[in-house]
Amino acid sequence: SAGGKKTVDLVSGSDDGTCVLWDSGEGVKYTLKGHSKGVTQVEAIYHQRDGLLVATGSADSSVKLWRREGDQFECFQTIDLRTGYCFALKFCTLPRSGGVMLACATDNDLVTLYVSSGEQFVVAEKLAGHSDWVRGLDCVTEGDDLLLASSSQDSFIRLWRVSPRDQVRAQRSFEEFSADEDIVLEERVFSVEFE
């Protein structure tokens, strides 16, 4: 909102390669042009530092990220999916840092997480666990964690917990672990047994 007045009520994608931001009182507020094929996925978030961010996924095998510059929206990043197809996009605000994360699902079985780093979004992690295309994403905060849900054509819904890195625990040396304790390395858990 700008000065308490709501400026965008709805974001839609179109087969003509555009994304339209709508205002309930005025109709079409902004038209975002840049894709060469139909826009099949849209996502938007209002962020305290960055204002309104919009992500568009298209049949042209790209995801474009847009932000408001003055009274227009400008594409500030294009993510090339090569020959891939975007099936789901979801912006999330990271609870502890307040940063923005974009979850993206394409025509493989991965969910790619991008985080804002300066002026660009960079790949932070690729979540593997589904065995078919991921078709839907949603998220909710729980304390300092973010819970991300992904639904797939493999008939499963997976819940992923995104937690801030615990710097103290991450810096423990191998000798500090007891023989019956799980070792956490880069947020992936491995169980170790000694015989």
UniProtKB/TrEMBL annotation:
Keywords: Cytoplasm, Nucleus, Repeat, tRNA processing, WD repeat. Pathway: tRNA modification; 5-methoxycarbonylmethyl-2-thiouridine-tRNA biosynthesis. One of its GO terms (biological process) is tRNA wobble uridine modification. It is found in: Cytoplasm; Nucleus. Gene3D superfamilies: YVTN repeat-like/Quinoprotein amine dehydrogenase. Pfam families: WD40 (PF00400). WD repeats lie at residues 32-66, 127-170. One of its GO terms (cellular component) is nucleus. PANTHER family: ELONGATOR COMPLEX PROTEIN 2. Belongs to the WD repeat ELP2 family. This is Elongator complex protein 2.
